[in-house]
């Protein structure tokens, strides 16, 4: 009857990579906090709309060179939360999902009309709280800067090299320490490796394995592919993966389903 | 006219700490993927409901010792997506937010009734896709395991020490490499430091600063507090913060708004 359970450390956050590529995101407030949010969002290819009476000069410049979906240099209005919605929420709920055209409408609403996230970066706490409630009524994910209790999610310090991203969080205890850990611990370690090359090599290997070397969608094929992928990733050191090029990866793939003899790639 | 803009590397994800403490989260599918999702969710104190015909023995055990909100050992039904909702979506949209009782209803719906996240971990792709569309119609955030195009968010490899969490992502290119970077780079570096003590020290300092040493909610006070907090965090090395105890932090706070003379804490 005795069973060993995983050791769960509660009290953490759920760390997730949010997919906002080509999705609308609303930033209310165009000061320095708004700018920092927008920079994060642009790295993730979101379609960003900024609404703010005062707009930071960098945000204005982003607007001029069309990096943003829209810059509305005016006071916020509650209807801005549904700026791109073309179907009413009531009609959306009425759609019969057994009809293919309903699925298209739902998809279009989700991918092209609603705000995936709403970021409120203004000093007017009364207005901010009103926006919060309206977001909750509409089912929109929202973050109020400096109001941790009114946030569905927090931002952290992120180290980035190509496709590699490392986020450091202290669950709100010390954002400044996150920043220092990034600059003095993570950065020196990963800057000294050509780690984005390792990521590209392994991404290439995985794609080619799925598309050409061992294609198929049944669960046995998937399991075989994943198993070899795990083994081959572990077969070389991280440093080896950093130093390889596409030719080396091709040589490794040729030996599938075997693992290479040591020394075959160098 | 020339203006230097931040260097934006597009093609990334938006990395966020999601707040699911005491929020309902639905996991559909109780196999090994479902279990791994549940473990992540329990670390973040979510109220987890699992619906699955087959339930992994560990999940069953979690259910028995009441670590989960509910384990429904049966086939999924579409109405499960609204299992805890007490107000209809139509009525929710009709609420007049100028009335205080409406705000309570919206808050209760958001915090206690709707699923903050829905995680689909089943092999039946047709059913999974139907669940996806229904989630989108209801405005629920959803992740379909192994279907990156049908996900609002992805999971990554997470290193955890107390309140410190570090997530490593390669934007889907090589989850296995994330795992190795965690085990062979991040873990040795941070395990050798008493880093969770540093986080606790800085969290204590920040709370005490706000509550006792320099309280107040006006923007000038906030700015002064943040400025000193930044300076004091940078004044000592990361290793110093790891080695201090609460008495040392108290000594530092006594000198506010000055910075300590070097050598005062050791």
Automatic annotation (TrEMBL), chains A, B:
<keyword id="KW-0560">Oxidoreductase</keyword>
<keyword id="KW-0520">NAD</keyword>
<keyword id="KW-0627">Porphyrin biosynthesis</keyword>
<dbReference type="Pfam" id="PF14823">
    <property type="entry name" value="Sirohm_synth_C"/>
</dbReference>
<feature type="domain" description="Siroheme biosynthesis protein Met8 C-terminal">
    <location>
        <begin position="194"/>
        <end position="258"/>
    </location>
</feature>
<comment type="pathway">
    <text>Porphyrin-containing compound metabolism; siroheme biosynthesis; sirohydrochlorin from precorrin-2: step 1/1.</text>
</comment>
<dbReference type="InterPro" id="IPR036291">
    <property type="entry name" value="NAD(P)-bd_dom_sf"/>
</dbReference>
<protein>
    <recommendedName>
        <fullName>precorrin-2 dehydrogenase</fullName>
        <ecNumber>1.3.1.76</ecNumber>
    </recommendedName>
</protein>
<dbReference type="GO" id="GO:0043115">
    <property type="term" value="F:precorrin-2 dehydrogenase activity"/>
</dbReference>
<dbReference type="Pfam" id="PF14824">
    <property type="entry name" value="Sirohm_synth_M"/>
</dbReference>
<dbReference type="InterPro" id="IPR028162">
    <property type="entry name" value="Met8_C"/>
</dbReference>
<dbReference type="GO" id="GO:0004325">
    <property type="term" value="F:ferrochelatase activity"/>
</dbReference>
<dbReference type="InterPro" id="IPR028281">
    <property type="entry name" value="Sirohaem_synthase_central"/>
</dbReference>
<dbReference type="InterPro" id="IPR028161">
    <property type="entry name" value="Met8-like"/>
</dbReference>
<dbReference type="GO" id="GO:0019354">
    <property type="term" value="P:siroheme biosynthetic process"/>
</dbReference>
<dbReference type="Pfam" id="PF13241">
    <property type="entry name" value="NAD_binding_7"/>
</dbReference>
<feature type="domain" description="Siroheme synthase central">
    <location>
        <begin position="161"/>
        <end position="183"/>
    </location>
</feature>
């Amino acid at each position: 009857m005795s069973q060993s359970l995983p050791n769960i450390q509660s009290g953490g956050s759920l760390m997730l990579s949010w997919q906002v590529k080509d999705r609308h995101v609303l930033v209310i407030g165009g000061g320095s906090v708004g700018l920092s949010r927008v920079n994060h969002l642009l790295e993730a290819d979101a379609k960003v709309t900024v609404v703010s009476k005062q707009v930071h000069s960098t945000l204005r410049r982003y607007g001029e060179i069309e990096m943003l979906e829209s810059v509305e240099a005016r006071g916020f209005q509650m209807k801005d939360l549904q700026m791109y919605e073309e179907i009413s929420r009531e009609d959306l709920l009425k759609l019969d999902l057994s009809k293919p055209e309903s699925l298209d409408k739902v998809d279009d609403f989700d991918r092209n009309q609603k705000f995936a996230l709403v970021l409120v970066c203004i000093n007017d706490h009364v207005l901010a709280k009103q926006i919060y409630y309206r977001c909750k009524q509409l089912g929109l994910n929202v973050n109020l800067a400096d109001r941790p209790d009114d946030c569905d999610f927090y931002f952290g310090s992120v180290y980035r090299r190509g496709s590699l991203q490392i986020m450091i969080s202290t669950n709100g205890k010390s954002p400044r320490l996150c920043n220092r850990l990034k600059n003095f611990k993570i950065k020196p370690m990963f800057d000294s490796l050509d780690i984005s090359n390792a990521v590209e090599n392994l991404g290439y290997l995985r794609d080619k394995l799925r598309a050409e070397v061992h294609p198929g969608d049944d669960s046995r094929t998937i399991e075989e592919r994943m198993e070899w992928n795990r083994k081959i990733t572990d077969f070389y050191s991280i440093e080896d993966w950093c130093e390889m090029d596409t030719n080396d990866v091709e040589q490794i793939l040729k030996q599938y389903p075997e693992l290479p003899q040591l020394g075959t790639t160098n």
